[in-house]
Amino acid sequence: MNLDALILDAETAFTRALDAAALENEKARFFGKTGLLTELLKNLGKLDAVARKQQGAEINLAKTRIEALLNQRRQALADALLATRLASEAIDVTLPGRGIKPGSLHPIMRTWERVEQIFGSIGFALAQGPEIEDDWHNFTALNSPENHPARSMQDTFYVEPLDPNGQPLLLRTHTSPVQVRYARAHVARYQGGVMPPIKIIAPGRTYRVDSDATHSPMFHQLEGLWIDEQVSFADLKGVYTDFLRKFFERDDIAVRFRPSYFPFTEPSAEIDMAFGQGRWLEISGAGQVHPKVLSNMGLDPERYMGFAFGSGIDRLTMLRYGIEDLRLFYEGDVRFLTQFS
Ligand code: PHE
């Protein structure tokens, strides 16, 4: 029984094992059912008590030593594995960063802020209304009775369920319902007192079942409303033309007011702007607020009058930057968007 040779054998065998699986095979050669150490221990039974005690102690010492060698090798292999993985996954922290570029306002938001600023400078207050609107505010109050064909020009998205009064809810097709909401609140606020004029703009998101180069299912409108005792169509022309001059920063803009029809204005006009060679782009509907709408606002049509307009913010943006296709605004392509930053 040469225990030193056995220990040496184990040491070389473990060192030669190059991975965990090979090492476990070598382990079996010593500690397995018929392993070298196991056999030695089995043979102890054949010895007398004195020899058994002495040899048993020696074998156990050798066993402990071989176990220690095994564990050392296991640890060494695990460490080496970790080291290669760390090396292969290493990142070079000294490389310069890619840089985070600052974002910028979307071109449509630039127009939005610009129109707020321009109309604010001539005394128009800012108003807002819900994007999910009820049928009454979006259509009926604006003099579009149920089943009237004018409604089909503004097909939209209906939302379920109905509102608490059993009315259909829909995504507003224009910002005009804000006229009615604002005017009714205004009338209620000044009930029994002196009512100041109503002079607001209401920019916001609007929705229609429409999609091509100049129409998007979601788009932006700018509503304007000025009601007092003497606000004429001439005021509309003056205010609106002045706005366009400021917006486009030039005095020679080509605008035309084209007779049109809206249920909520009378007379009504469409405002077009020159767009490229000999083409016109419609940018706004407008007109004198219809007497029925004034009544629905709670105003006396014999006493009050005014104008309203509803302009396409996206269209104004197309004209300002010379963009031919409105869908570019909604594709989120940074190559397009960074041109405005
Ligand atoms: N609401 C109309 C539309 O979206 C535009 C408009 C607003 C027309 C106000 C007249 C007065 O088409």
Can you name the CATH architecture of the largest domain? 2-Layer Sandwich
Spatially, the strands of the biggest sheet line up as 1-5-6-10-9-8-7
Distance between the termini: 87 Å
Bound molecules: phenylalanine
Estimate what percentage of residues fall within beta strands: 15-25%
Give the total of domains: 2
The radius of gyration is 42 Å
Task: Sketch the major β-sheet.
Answer: 7 strands, mixed
Structure description:
The chain is α+β, with helices and mostly antiparallel strands and 341 residues long. It is built from eleven helices and ten strands. The strands form two sheets. The chain has a seven-stranded mixed sheet, sandwiched between helices. Strand 7 and strand 8 (265-274) form a beta hairpin. It is rod-shaped. The termini are far apart. Residues 174, 176, 262, 265, 285-287, 308-310 line the site of phenylalanine.
What would the keywords be for this entry?
BirA Bifunctional Protein, domain 2; 341 residues; rod-shaped; seven-stranded mixed sheet; binds phenylalanine; three-stranded antiparallel sheet; alpha+beta; single chain
